[in-house]
Design brief:
The chain has 308 residues and is α+β, with helices and mostly antiparallel strands. It has 2 domains: 2-84 and 96-172, no CATH class; 191-251 and 263-307, no CATH class. Helix content is 35%, strand content 13%. The chain has helices at residues 2-18, 35-44, 58-62, 64-67, 103-122, 138-144, 191-195, 213-219, 241-244, 264-268, 271-275, 279-285, 295-307, and strands at residues 23-28, 73-80, 93-94, 127-130, 149-150, 156-157, 165-172, 201-203, 206-207, 235-237. The strands form 4 sheets. It has a 4-stranded antiparallel β-sheet, with helices on both faces. A two-stranded parallel ribbon has the order 3-10. The protein is globular. The mean pLDDT is 95. Cob(II)alamin binds at residues 61, 132, 156, 167, 214, 239-240.
């Protein structure tokens, strides 16, 4: 049995690499005891703001066996999105993860391929793929699987590759060899805390989501609060400030996923170009992008807030 576990684990990690994933780690599917009080405290402080979906499925968020009955392993995967080319400096910024094709679709396809290969090579496996759209604590599982540590900005960090990557999971009913967590390497650094314009990182490792620029520009559907005027710098969709200033991201290397390459106009437009954005141009540039989540009116609202 042990030999099979080692063989299956090696097969999964080899196939994950072939599919283009940055890294793959595996942990036992069980109740996340340490995360329970943290999640409860986060919700009690209303740091989720208008993201009410975070209040749902509390038990399932903490226990994958409630999400996928009979599950034994959580396979965590990282996919690099750090771009080769970035937007010009005199412009309104889009978070780098949204430069190209919507990651949900790109990663879902890769996860399906991985699960199909597992079924072909190992046999009948029950499992589900998750990409940031279900009650799964992605960062907690990735950290438990040894893929990095949770930094002071609450993002997963790796010494080798920084933090510019997506996290996804396969939760399966297969016994595998489990990885162990790595140690924290933030040390005394406070670069992310010092750089956040809205003071969303209220203390090391604790982020008030309702103060985050990403929250305001993507999640909040109401009018943007005037009390935050002139604090968004040039971010019209998402925000990368805490990642951009992190010393570990000097090790970020460009991805090799063609689907994540940006539309040329995204790189070319200056502030005036975005201020003149039409619905037709929006649909063209962001046709299959995660930016569509804000819809045209949402992005217009963000641009108007920045330029006034």
């Amino acid at each position: 049995m042990y030999e099979n576990k080692a063989k299956y684990t090696n097969l999964i990690k080899t196939e994950a690499k072939r599919l283009g994933f940055l890294s793959c780690g595996i942990s036992k599917a069980e109740f996340l005891e340490e995360e329970a009080p943290r999640l409860e405290a986060y919700l009690n402080k209303n740091w989720q703001g208008e993201m009410h979906y975070l209040e749902n499925y509390f038990d399932k968020r903490l226990d994958p066996t409630k999400l996928v009955p009979g599950s034994k392993s959580v396979i965590s995967l990282l996919l690099n999105y750090y771009p080769q080319e970035k937007q010009r400096e005199d412009t309104y910024q889009v978070s780098k993860y949204a430069y190209g094709r919507d990651y949900h679709f790109v990663i879902k396809d890769k996860l399906k391929d991985l699960l199909n290969t597992m079924r072909d090579e190992i046999g009948d496996i029950e499992g589900r793929a998750f990409v940031d759209s279900a009650p799964v604590l992605d960062k907690a599982w990735a950290a438990r699987s040894g893929l990095g540590w949770i930094g002071k900005h609450s993002n997963l960090l790796s010494k080798q590759t920084g933090s510019f990557y997506f996290i996804a999971e396969l939760i399966v009913d297969l016994d595998l060899e489990y990885d162990t967590p790595v140690t924290d390497h933030c040390g005394s650094c406070t670069a992310c805390i010092d750089a956040c314009p809205t003071d969303a990182i209220v203390e090391p490792y604790k982020v008030d989501g309702s103060r985050c620029i990403s929250y305001f520009t993507i999640e909040l559907k109401d009018e943007l609060p005037n009390s935050y005027k002139n604090q968004f710098e040039d971010w019209m969709f998402g925000c990368d400030i805490c990642q951009d200033v992190c010393p570990w991201n000097r090790f970020s290397k460009p991805h090799n996923e063609p689907l994540f390459n940006p539309h040329p106009e995204l790189l070319e437009k200056d502030r005036k170009g975005w201020e003149e954005l039409t619905r037709e141009t929006f649909n063209e540039i962001f046709r299959k992008s995660a930016v569509k989540r804000t819809k045209f009116q949402g992005l217009r609202r963000n641009i108007d807030f920045l330029k006034d």
